[in-house]
Amino acid sequence: MRRFLKSFIFAAKGLVFAFQTQLNLRLHLIAALSVLLLGWYAGLSAVEWTVILLCIALVVALELVNTAIEVLVDLVSPEWNHKAGIVKDVAAASVLVAAVIALIVSIVIFAPKIFVNAV
């Protein structure tokens, strides 16, 4: 049981490290908070909330994996290396893809609510 509880402490340390060192993670969290507030204001349905929360989780999780990959690549290849750069670029691309999809999902969910209320 102690080992199980320690795993949460280690995970929290990783989250704190990423939050303190990764500007993109902080920006994603600000965007997530903005979407959550907009969703509360717009009165999203349970399905819409589920989709929004899954998109937020996907982007944040991939940002954390990207951070781990960057730290690992820096550890094993401290000097510049073309292939190390490719690894970092591909990891960053995964976050970009998830963020773009999250943006599209947000537009699909929020646009009808904004334009119906605006008319």
Automatic annotation (TrEMBL):
Main location group: membrane
Enzyme Commission code(s) on record: 2.7.1.-
Keyword vocabulary terms for this entry: ATP-binding, Cell membrane, Kinase, Lipid biosynthesis, Lipid metabolism, Membrane, Nucleotide-binding, Phospholipid biosynthesis, Phospholipid metabolism, Transferase, Transmembrane, Transmembrane helix
Membrane topology, as annotated: Multi-pass membrane protein
Pfam families: DAGK_prokar
PANTHER family named among the record's database cross-references: DIACYLGLYCEROL KINASE (PTHR34299)
Name by which UniProt lists this protein: Diacylglycerol kinase family protein
Annotated source species: Pedobacter ureilyticus
